[in-house]
């Protein structure tokens, strides 16, 4: 069983963050299996859409970190008269999404350096992607640059407390890094407040999934391409004794529905001032 987790080491430290090429390659490899296990991603993205005003109709929208294009297609159906751009850092995801349509253009690009002109988008929609961005201040700056006045940046991300059951169970087994680090919710609040964008809403909400056993959870994380890329992570396969230790430790969290995996989801809607 390989060692797995979800996004992202936050603090900007030399050598303390995953290489973007590794992130892109991991998600590219997972393109074919991603949608089959993306319950959390679909639920969170749907929740994020519900935070947009009902009368808001963007002329041009950007699906930032589009992945397999599920929400590009949802946005295309919701705003049929709009012009859609789907962007992802992983070429494999774009290759999967492009034939399925939804957006007008599919572009490989980095959220921290958007390959788009100033003031060209009415909506930037990003569901469970920006947690991979080490420099979130740059993501906000780029959103501010690319949005038109009164344009909206709606994003969902993850913060501290995500996968705490897996993290705490591994801590009982060894002292190595098995679960990626996440920003504190307070950091999101500080960066958003300093971004020049008006914060219409910013909140965090737990989303709990349940699994029959640990292997089901780790299999899903692998199928999502969400590998542990932290410095200090164990290399290669995890030994049988350590896996048995993990299974035993995780059992303390078992509920009637199964083994819980908690995701602390950040939901935000921001607006560029006139």
What's this entry about, in short?
The protein is α/β, with parallel strands linked by helices and 274 residues long.
Commentary on this structure:
Residues 1-20 are annotated as: Disordered. Helices cover 33% and strands 22% of the residues. β4 (121-127), α6 and β5 form a beta-alpha-beta unit. With 274 residues, it is an alpha/beta fold. It has a single domain, classed as 3-Layer(aba) Sandwich (Rossmann fold), CATH 3.40.50.150. Residues 1-17 have low confidence and may be disordered. It has helices spanning 20-29, 31-34, 39-50, 70-78, 91-97, 136-146, 164-171, 185-193, 214-223, 240-250, and strands at residues 60-64, 83-88, 105-108, 121-127, 147-158, 198-211, 259-271.
Mean pLDDT score: 85
What sequence of helices (H) and strands (E) makes up the elements?
HHHEHEHEEHEHHEHHE
| CATH level-four homologous superfamily name | Vaccinia Virus protein VP39
Low-confidence stretches: 1-17
Q: Write the CATH fold name.
A: Rossmann fold
Task: Tell me roughly what share of residues is in helical segments.
Answer: 25-40%
The top level CATH class name: Alpha Beta
β-strand percent reads 15-25%
Summary keywords:
274 residues, alpha/beta, Rossmann fold, 7-stranded mixed sheet, globular, disordered N terminus, methyltransferase, Malonyl-[acyl-carrier protein] O-methyltransferase, Malonyl-ACP_OMT
Secondary structure layout plus pairing:
Layout: H1 20-29, H2 31-34, H3 39-50, E1 60-64, H4 70-78, E2 83-88, H5 91-97, E3 105-108, E4 121-127, H6 136-146, E5 147-158, H7 164-171, H8 185-193, E6 198-211, H9 214-223, H10 240-250, E7 259-271
């Amino acid at each position: 069983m390989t060692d797995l987790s979800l996004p992202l080491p936050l603090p900007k430290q030399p050598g303390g963050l995953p290489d973007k090429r590794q992130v892109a390659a991991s998600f590219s490899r997972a393109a074919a299996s991603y949608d089959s296990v993306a319950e959390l991603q679909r639920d969170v993205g749907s929740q994020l859409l519900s935070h947009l005003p009902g009368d808001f109709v963007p002329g041009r929208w950007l699906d930032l970190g589009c992945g397999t294009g599920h929400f590009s297609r949802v946005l295309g159906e919701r705003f049929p008269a709009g012009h859609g751009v789907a962007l992802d850092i992983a070429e494999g995801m774009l290759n999967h999404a492009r034939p399925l349509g939804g957006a007008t253009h599919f572009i490989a690009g980095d959220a921290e350096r958007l390959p788009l002109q100033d003031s060209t988008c009415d909506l930037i929609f990003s569901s469970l992607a920006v947690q991979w961005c080490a420099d979130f201040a740059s993501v906000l700056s780029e959103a501010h640059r690319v949005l038109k006045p009164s344009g909206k940046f709606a994003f969902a991300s993850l913060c501290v407390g995500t996968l705490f059951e897996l993290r705490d169970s591994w801590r009982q087994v060894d002292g190595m890094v098995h679960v990626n680090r996440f920003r504190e919710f307070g950091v999101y609040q500080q960066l958003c407040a300093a971004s020049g964008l008006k914060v219409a809403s910013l909140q965090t909400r737990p989303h709990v999934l349940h699994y029959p056993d640990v292997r089901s959870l780790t299999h899903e994380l692998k199928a999502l391409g969400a590998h542990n890329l932290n410095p200090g992570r164990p290399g290669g396969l995890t030994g049988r004794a350590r896996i048995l230790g993990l299974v035993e430790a995780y059992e303390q969290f078992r509920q009637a529905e199964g083994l819980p995996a908690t995701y602390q989801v950040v939901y935000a809607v921001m607006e560029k001032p006139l």
